[in-house]
Each structure stands twice: as C-alpha cells, then as structure tokens.
Amino acid sequence: MEVEEVNISQEVILPRKPAKKRQHSTMEVDQVSGIQGTSRTSISGRKRPKSVDQRKIVVPVRRLGALKENWLKIVNPLTENLNLQVRFNLKSRQVEMRISPNTQDVANLQKGADFVKAFIYGFEVDDALALLRLDDLFVETFDVMDVKTLRGDHKSRAIGRLAGKGGRTKYTIENTTKTRIVLADSRVHILGSFQNIQLARRAICNLIIGSPPNKVYGNLRSVAGRISERI
C-alpha cells in the first residue's frame, strides 16, 4: 500500500508596515491688537509647487501716500517671516509678490496678499498683521446700499450712525466683538474671525435700518456674553 505524499504549502505572512502617524497641528485661541482668532503651529510645512505662483494687488491713488509711509512695515513681515519676494510696480501701481526658494509653505503667498489687501482697505498695519499671526481671520466687505436703499441725506445719516459721535459707536462694536471696522464712504470692511464678523455685521445692519444705538448695544453685549460662556 503506497502512501501519497501531500505537500502543504505554507503561506508567507509578511510583517505589517507600521501605520504612518498623521501630523496634527495645534490650535490655540489667541488675540492680537484686540482681534480674536486661532493660532496654529504646524509641524511640517507644505511642499512648494514647481510652478512659481504670484499675486498682484492694485493700489488706488488715495492709498499711495499711506503705502509709501508704511512700506518698510509692510515689506519686512512679508520678506522675513513669510520669505516672499515683494516689489511695487510704479507703472501699474501694483504690489507684486511671489514665492521664493526659501518659502516653506505655499499658503504664505495668500496670507501675504490678504495682509496687503487689508492695508489697502484702510486698516492699520498693526491690525492687518493679525492676518499673518492668527489663523481663521477674514476680511468681509459690503456696501451700505446692500442692506437698505438710501438716498441723499438718509444715506449720510446712516453712515453717521455707524461711526457715532467721535467714533464711539464704531469703537464699541469693535471692542465688544473683538474685530476691527473701517468705514470708507459707503463701504464697510470688517476684520476678524467668522463668528465675530457675523456678530459685528448684524449690529451694523441694525444701525443702518434705523434701530436705536442703545438697543443695538444691549443685544450685542448679551450675544457676546453667551458666546464667551460657550468658549
């Protein structure tokens, strides 16, 4: 009686590769020049693309003088902190910036463009610098006419209600919502986090419609108090 030999092939089990750990970024609530936002400390920067990208920001004539006076304050953070290449084109009146070989994060280019745009809108350099130091900050722009159609003196009175006597109303909204507001004729620019911008815009819209300032202040403080309790 013959016994057949059966070959049992053993499966080769390869050792599992260790899973790559995701690199997380830490976010902390911080405040710069009275503007509240979150600061993010990234572990590793993003890779720079092979194609060189650039941004061009047109400077209106009314802001040329301010740009000339604060040029060094604007250029130094862009070149030293963000490692961008910056120049001002006299013919086209544009601030041109692009990525340099030393730029570690491609997001720095957009940050730099937002910083320059905020200054062009009318924000102070120290306030606009918050866009570079804090994350989740934005600049929202809208027109008074977008809220309510006003003509002649009614439009002027609405803009006056936003500023208040000696700028008191504007400062109160800024301090309560931890934002910065610029009133440029009928244009309103708000710098801050998304939640704080919505809070400030709601108060401004109520003033444009015609709500009494005292009522707007009361609603603003109550909402801001509830938000601070949640945080």
From TrEMBL:
GO molecular function, one term: RNA binding
Chain segments carrying region Disordered: 16-49
A Pfam family assignment: KH_PNO1_2nd
Stretches with biased composition (Polar residues): 33-44
Keywords: Nucleus, RNA-binding
All residue ranges annotated as the K Homology domain in the record: 139-209
InterPro entries per UniProt: KH-I_PNO1_first (IPR055212), KH_dom (IPR004087), KH_dom_type_1_sf (IPR036612), KH_PNO1_2nd (IPR055211)
Protein name: Putative rna-binding protein pno1
Organism: Phlebotomus kandelakii
